[in-house]
């Protein structure tokens, strides 16, 4: 429930902050933010599992999602978005 409230609050703040951005900026920001949230959720799942192999896989997936988020942010900055 707390995560839902956090996501809703973040979405509200993003919509206010996005007023001065182009649609491309908004799409890049949304994609990056979604990947960051996915990474956080995967990390939380890894912490809550008792299977070490599954936890390692979840942490790897979390790190990959964070890397993808960073790549989107860097591409947006590099392309002047």
By DSSP (H or I, 4+ residues per run), the number of helices equals: 3
Count of the separate structural domains: 1
Return the structural class: mainly alpha
**What is the succession of H and E elements?**
HHH
Residue windows where pLDDT falls under 50 for at least 5 positions: none
List the quaternary state of the chains.
Answer: single chain
Share of residues in helices: over 70%
**Alpha-carbon distance between the termini?**
34 Å
Query: Largest sheet, if any?
Result: none
* Cα-based radius of gyration, to the nearest Å: 15 Å
Q: Overall pLDDT, averaged?
A: 84
Q: So what's the overall shape?
A: elongated
How many strand elements? 0
What is the percentage of strand-forming residues? under 5%
Q: Can you walk me through this structure?
A:
The protein has helices at 2-17, 23-48, 52-78. The protein has 81 residues and is mainly alpha-helical. The protein has one domain (21-77). The radius of gyration is 15 Å and the shape is elongated.
Task: Please render the helix and strand layout as text.
Blueprint: H1 2-17, H2 23-48, H3 52-78
Summed up:
The protein is mainly alpha-helical. The chain is built from 3 helices and no strands.
Q: Keyphrases for this structure?
A:
81 residues; Circumsporozoite protein; coiled coil; signal; elongated; mainly alpha
């Amino acid at each position: 429930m707390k995560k839902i409230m956090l996501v809703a609050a973040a979405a509200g703040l993003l919509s206010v902050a996005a007023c001065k951005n182009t649609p491309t900026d908004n799409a890049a920001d949304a994609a990056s933010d979604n990947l960051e949230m996915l990474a956080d959720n995967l990390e939380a799942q890894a912490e809550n599992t008792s299977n070490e192999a599954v936890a390692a896989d979840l942490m790897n997936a979390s790190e990959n999602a964070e890397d993808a988020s960073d790549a989107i942010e860097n591409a947006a900055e590099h392309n002047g978005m």
